[in-house]
Amino acid sequence: MEPGRGGVAAGAASFYVPTNKLRSVNSPAVGWLPALANRRFSGLLLIWAGLPILLLYVWQAVVQPLVFGAYLGDFQESYMRAAGRLAAGHDPYDLCQTMGCLEPTGPQYVTPLPLAWLLQPFVGVDAHVLAAAAVLLLNASLAVFLFFVLRALRVDNWRLGALLVLIALAFEPTTANIVEGQINLVLLALSGVWLLAWIGGRWWGGAALGVAVALKLIQAPVGLLLLWARRWSMVAAAAIAGLGLWLLAAPQYVLEYVFKVVPAIGAGTGFFENHSPGGTVARLLEPDTFFGAVRGAPLAARIVTTLIAIAALAVTFWVFRAPSRTEAGRGLEAAAIVAVTPLVASYSWGTHLVLLLLPMLVLVTWAVRRRDWAVLGLVALGWALIGPGHHLFQALLVSGYSNLLVLRLLAELGVVGILAIWIASLEAIRRDRLTHSLDAAHEHSP
Asked: Do 167 and 368 form a contact (C-beta atoms < 8 A)?
């Protein structure tokens, strides 16, 4: 029986290991587990840990931008500038033509057309009102994501639910997206809708995925999972929604985006904010790309990056083998394909990594229910390296720290964190299928 169903749900979804199971464990490494098995203690621990996290998030992501009128960099410099150009009948990719398509940040618009097209009605609106609306929308997107993920994973234990919410709120890219006003949290909400449909075997999740890819190509590799699993109705919904939105949004600039902008940004960069393997390779082969003295990536780095992307996808689908027939298995498949996308993309900006909340929450739920501390530890490592680890690097950089070797090493923490989450997803799939194989063998044994 699937975890989270019927009378087994309370035990299977319980946040902590029962005390009677812990008495047989003599290892001192788990001496702290009996305390966590106490429901009152574990609940108080979550509350006391959660209150500072919640208050800090409200202050940084709600109060400061709304009350003090924070400037949303990418939203106002890039998105709204492109919307204004489009509304005036001008090319939104003008800076790509005059300066070249640089890293995907700042005033240059390198995002697909639908985003600027959808923002046209708001051109001319007071900047403070517009920024406040954007902050509310991004926070609402996070809430939508959490709602759909908790529903998809059948989380009916408040301790587990609270843990998942706190993981999302305390993840550094979450707040960073609101501070910069980036679209990634909207994509995260759409990914939550897709996850619910994917696990439940419904076609309409494809429309959410298609819209997400139309807004930003970063989630395009997820479509490979739909093709591999032969979910043709979901593929059709994604294609109709995504291509339809592209054809509606200023189609006169589509060819320019496909043939000029995409190849330029797809070349990658060794800039320190790029947390993809391609960024690491570019920094190794051309050290001057680290601070942007040399833009783009050398040809050799692009070739190696392509080979890494192909290898990562090949390993992922090799572990998949055949589509899972269980809800938990389908959730792990979704986690793995989302976890591999930063390894495939030529750009994995720090704010892009907020999309990894989907695999992290799926894996934490699976690991907690099965008391799999190895998978849980890998996810925790990835969360820490992408969040606090990268924050440490930024703090040293801003403070003027000059040891270049240390800075270069710290810049790779994000890549290691991505790898940890991807490996955790593959290991969870392997262990989940092994468990089901053993159960099936036991049922058929005489």
From this structure: no
DSSP state of 237: H
Nearest to 240, CA basis, from 198, 208, 202, 195:
208
What are the respective helix, strand and coil percentages of the chain, to the nearest 5?
75, 0, 25
Cα 15–chain centre separation: 24
By the 8 A CB rule, do 308 and 282 touch?
A: no
- Pairwise CA distance, residues 342 & 380, whole Å: 18
- The pTM of this model reads 0.89
The gap from C-alpha 36 to its chain's centroid, in whole angstroms, comes to: 29
| CA–CA distance, 220 with 227 (Å, rounded to integer) | 12
What three-state secondary structure class fits 331? Answer: helix
3-state secondary structure of 333: helix
Summarize the confidence of residues 286-310 as an average pLDDT.
Answer: 89
Helix, strand, or coil here: 272?
coil
The pLDDT score that the predictor gives to residue 76 is: 86
Phi first, then psi: give them for residue 224, nearest 5 degrees: -65, -35
Looking at residue 249, the DSSP 8-state letter turns out to be S
In tens, the pLDDT along 130-174 reads: 999 999 999 999 999 999 999 999 999 888 999 999 999 999 999
Please give the structure tokens belonging to residue 169.
């709120």
Contact 428, 442 (CB under 8 A): no
Closest CA to 147 of 181, 178, 191: 191
* Rounded-to-integer distance, Cα 333 and Cα 226, Å: 11
Rounded-to-integer distance, Cα 235 and Cα 227, Å: 7
The residue ranges of every structural domain in the chain are 39-266, 268-436
The alpha carbon dihedral of 163, 12, 358, 394 has a sign of positive
Q: Which two tokens stand for residue 88?
A: 């005036």
The full DSSP string for 155-224 is: ---HHHHHHHHHHHHH-HHHHHHHHHT-THHHHHHHHHHHHHHHHHT-STHHHHHHHHHHH-GGGTTHHH
